[in-house]
Amino acid sequence: MQRLLNRALPLLLDGALATELEHRGADLSGGLWSAHILKAQPELIREVHLDYFRAGADVAITASYQATLPGFLQAGYSATEAEALLRRSVKLAKEARTLFCSESSGMSTPLIAASVGPYGAYLADGAEYRGRYGLSDEALRDFHQPRIEWLLSETPDLLAFETLPSLQEAKVLLEMLEAYPEAQAWFSFTAKDAAHISEGQPLAEAGQLLGAHPQVVAIGFNCVPPHLGTALLANLARHTSKPLVIYPNSGEGWDAEQQCWLPSYRVPKGFGSLPEAWLQAGAGLIGGCCRTRPEDIQALRQLFAR
Q1: Is residue 84 left, alpha or beta, with left meaning phi > 0 and alpha meaning psi from -120 to 50?
Q2: Global confidence as pTM
Q3: Which of 6, 68, 210, 272 is such that its CA lies 20 to 30 A from the CA of 133?
Q4: In angstroms, rounded to a whole number, what is the distance separating the alpha carbons of residues 157 and 113?
């Protein structure tokens, strides 16, 4: 199978961070969501990263998804404090990796992917599943620039541009990535259906934009319903030879207006039999998003070990 950053595929990503923090008692109310925990309980973030490594994850995604300069300023932090907290998100993942390696001699060293969430996540109104922000490219660049610069200053292994609903935003982020020629990233989208990203553009356009770029290590989807995964991957695979990435949510729905999870069907632990179909459809990186837990990653590790 193809390789990614000198690792044989498939690679196992971690699972949800924010909802796992909440499961462990963290208060995620307020616009900062999980980014608040970077200040309030950083040791809890490190603990969650470590537990995902222990469950078998090859990659940790940092607690920077909701961490943005505008978000921190709006919450009363200074720009200096915002920078320190963004940088801390990478440091905590690295600390967890060091702890894991000290107790697991002989195992390969996990990777750190610094999360860059979409503008829609900052809005906290579900816009990451709709797109169409009504912003200029310049405004999107201004929004993302400080976070990308601060995260890269802590030398993560790669960036994770994730939960993107918009091809415009993906294009802006790709152009920004080019300003750091040594950096690499994956791009993962939310989806309107099995053939379109959330804003409505065909998957073919995402493949054409990203599919041959040397700094893009993988393309795919996250926080999508698990049952859409196989069709999404198969449709995208027609337009790129890059490794594909997928980390769906648990299958439960999120009500952005009421800020709550809706009672609905949850897939079996580790997504049941679906990951085998994802592998067949070309997935090289598989993990979990909202409401998945370390036991889901452990089940995936057992599948990969067969």
Answers
A1: alpha
A2: 0.95
A3: 210
A4: 6
